[in-house]
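#struct-queue
[09:14] JT: dropping the first one here, sequence first, then the structure tokens:
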Amino acid sequence: MRILILGGTTLTGPYAVRRLHSLGHEVTVLHRGEHETELPSGVRHLHDDFAKLPREAFDPAPDAVVHMWAMTEMDAESFLRTFRGVASRAVVISSGDVYRAYGRLTGVESGAPDPIPLSEDAPLRESRYPYRRIAPNPDHWMAQYDKVLVEQVLMHQTDLATCILRFPAVVGPKEHRRFQQWLQPMLRGDVELRIQEGWARWRWTHGFAEDVAEAVVLAVTNSASARRIYNVGESHAPTMAERLVEFARLAGWKGYIREVPPSELREADRMLYDFSHHLAYDTTRIRTELGYKEVIPHELAVARTLEHERMRDA
């Protein structure tokens, strides 16, 4: 297959590119040049703004196109204008923040917790633009970000058969936001780690970058994924405290974890969310329909994350 990947140079993309290339597909990576990564010899690597390229630029036409960075309604509409009638199928990355549970977690919406795990048919957010309040300026993409709108544009049309992958919280090398503030005290050898109660018992589906990339590979190479939506991530979401206990064990940390109320944490470390609303996803559909499964042993993936954190601190 001729596969075009838009973006794909940060966390999960490089793994997907390498895997597709190893399977013998003709892969082209097109991105704006803001992030670079080492790609296999034989992968075509282009710099350009894909939102502004004319349809004629894609010659020969790709059989399938993967959009890793469709953040806004406008992104989705531009994507359709460019690739309808050009590619046969598309795979577009979405997020679990489309679920109603996310709106209730952040306090933008109200109501009782939704049952978990959340299937692909679970209720979606009714509120819009979840990150507008923290956008650095009105012109920043975060001000218009909304994966609910992206999904609506792509799934309510018939010109380009599209698969939506709802990504989990992705962790692994190069990712430093998820656990850095808790892993660094462990790696320093601090005696105590204080974590916010509520958050400690919260469940959020995660996935290691290389595993999540395999979902992209399966979706783009399997025509059965067309017009389907899939949750991606681990089969069971432990609590956040349980995750930290595992990190501590594999890091050889001998300290102890203590749950405390937000008032006992630095103001910058307090998380003002309603953690009764879990973001634990049901990943049965992608495992059953596409045969998704993790590609690296779990403990090895955790160890790689720890090693990268050690290197960052060195």
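[09:21] JT: and here's the second one, same format:
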Amino acid sequence: MTELNYKVVIASSENMKEVESESVQLIVTSPPYWFLVHFSEEGDPESKDDLSRTNREEFNKRMGEVWKECYRVLKPGGFCVVNWEDIPTGSWLYGYPREISIVKDMVDPIEDSGLYLLSRWYWKKFEAGAATSKFQYLLYGNLMKNDPRACSNVAYVWAFKKRGKWRPKKLDFSKEDWIKWCDGHWRFDNPANSAKDLPGGAVFPAELPSRCIKIYSEPGDTVLDPFLGTGTTMAEAFRLGRSCIGYEILNKRIPTIKAKTGFGSTNLFDQTKWELITRGID
């Protein structure tokens, strides 16, 4: 019988003291963006730890601390998979139409921590034809007065690795799965926030962490999400037989995380332990 542990920590992932060094096989996460999309509300007691309320310079500095912690807790040979996307509506910041690219802001601090870029996927979230009402610049009739621009319907899924000896891995996916997944372009829909998801909660589809967990870990491994959000990564880790640790700054997300992950659940085949730590609450 395998012992699986699930730990939700309400605290900033700039200090993950609850996680032992070199104890995690895989990190799967989607971090916030500097002052581009707010994930806390003004007045929240935890907003001081909300990196989405920082300017670009402070964001990069504090994210650097997160990536250093990620490097510390990863086992040699472990992986860190990060999902993010560029921001198409940069006019509010610059005063004229342009995109905000955050690739450099993400990649440089991650590699500065000691991890190195191993691979990348591009996730096509939806078809361009369905987005003309959302992005007015895509309308054919607006081409006479606006510069032509591509639809912003692609996100990044980049895989980094901590140097270490390669280990044999037990695969729990099929050859047919891999033929589909090894394509550099992933295609699955991005779900709209459901009624149970809190305002400001960026919810990525379960298929994204599911693929990453299967590709870069095996049953019984430990997965970490330093920006747990509504708990999608932990829910998939539990479903796939991996232990999981998740950090989240907002205390009010606890009910959503518990509901999505099935907090406290057990199964017939594994010994399961759940723990909630609220270090970040005064």
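[09:30] RK: nice, looked through the second one.
[09:31] RK: Residues 193-200 have pLDDT under 50 and may be disordered.
[09:31] JT: good to know. The CA atoms of residues 88 and 99 lie 4 Å apart.
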